[in-house]
Design a protein that fits this description.
mainly alpha, elongated
Length: 118
């Protein structure tokens, strides 16, 4: 299951983060409350969620590539190569996610919503 796919928020609560117990009380299901707790859906603004997802995914990819490059180049220093590529990739992913999330949030705000019913 991919946690970083933006979905319709299940909970709209402004001002504070949800704990696991609060999410379970609101949603009623442990599985849904775990998803809300891990993704922060409905708690954080869209640009922040996209920024976190970009940082996690690009940081993970950067660390894997850094580990491979480190093992090929000089194996005793592979751990350092992992962080040398992972940390900048994570920062880049956060910035790209922030800009993309801001664009998505602005486009959602700019376009008018059609009524759901008939």
């Amino acid at each position: 299951m991919v946690f970083c796919v933006p979905k319709v928020p299940l909970v709209q609560q402004k001002g504070s983060d949800l704990t696991m117990e609060q999410a379970t009380q609101i949603v009623g299901s442990k599985r849904d409350s775990l998803r809300i707790f891990l993704t922060g859906q409905g708690v954080h603004p869209v640009p922040v969620r996209w920024s976190l997802c970009g940082a996690i995914w690009l940081g993970g990819v950067g660390m894997v590539i850094g580990g491979v490059v480190g093992l090929v180049g000089y194996p005793p220093t592979a751990v350092f190569a992992t962080f040398e590529l992972g940390i900048p990739a994570s920062f880049t992913g956060a910035m790209v996610g922030l800009v993309t999330g801001a664009i998505v949030a602005l486009s959602r705000r700019a376009r008018p919503r059609k009524p759901q019913g008939g």
